[in-house]
Design goal:
This protein has eight helices and 21 strands. The chain is α+β, with helices and mostly antiparallel strands. The longest helix is centred in the N-terminal third of the chain and has 25 residues, at about 45-70. The two termini are about 50 Å apart. This is Baseplate J/gp47 family protein.
Length: about 400
Amino acid sequence: MTLTTVAPVLTKAGVIAPTYYEIVEYFKEEYRKIYGDDVYLESDSQDGQWIGIISRAIAECGAACVDVYSTFSPKTASEEALSRNVAINGITRALATYSYVDLLITGVAGTEIKNGSAIDTNNNKWIFPELVLIPESGQTLITACSEKIGSVLAQIGNVNKVGKPTRGWQSVINQTTSQLGVSVESDLKLRQRQALSVAIPSQSKIDGIKGALFGLSGVSRCKTYENNEDEIDELGLPPHSVCIVVAGGDAIEIAQIMRAKKSMGCKYFGNTQVTVQNTFNEPEQISLYRPNVIDIGFQINMQASTEYTSEIGVDVKQAIADYVNQLDIGDRITLNKVYIPAGLYGNLDSMTYEILSIMIIANDEGVEGDYKLLFNEVAYCDTDNILINISGGA
């Protein structure tokens, strides 16, 4: 296609700009119209080099125009521009977050725990809200925050030590696994959350609940399941029930949204019971599901060249862990997709080794082929759980 202008053009499909090579050919053609067809304009000539310099400057301006146009929509904007776009919907990019765990506190009714904390079996400290009041029942469910930022894993029953002894406080235990913290929210995740946030006023109650929950601070993942039948479904959901599986966020804030948007004649199904006050200041129990964390590892067999170093192995482990830790609730870990981060594609270091085989390890047990997470499970991979076996090569 012959160019008629080197300027960006606004079309029905958006802004298009000519490439560097198209601009070069355009200027060569215009140059020959002035000085004749026998003029020499290849890249080893002075005039050809000057045309190349001008063409590159114009091409970079055109690319900048395309980038600016792309920032006008959340679907195409990135980084800071995307953060500004989603602000229109009242949401912000999630920063790196702490891990959370729901704790059952048991003690004497009326006991006040101020600035309390609990310790898990790995000596990680979990910080309580500023004031925890044990009610007449002698038990209360709270959400504690990890002292360290990022992913801190605590399996069921691991948080069982009183961090700050208080008269009247008898015990603490976590009946669900911790909700892992996340790194700074990626563009892809933010676009997905923006799309869900506009579903809050939708006619579908389920879409509205999911959109509202993603608007809460600390919520990193959320899946909804509904059983409309008169019998228990294949997931184990009771008849006419809704299951909200949500990772991160404060349990009370989540339960308040679920109560406010609950449909008549429909009950919630979950592994965590939270008591909130309704409009008439009466206690109402809400069931939500905290996902079970599956500890994922890998055994990788490689054939390496002499250029392979241990630092490359560290990069491979980190790339695999990053891939697994961004998976959603109930996702499938497929080996063919794991080969992509493991291969460091696009990196020159990928030429120093060949992957012979990869095996998934789930909760310390080897898996043949792919691994499918259950509807209430989320994967977590630590680089320490990735074993690389190296054999020599050419």
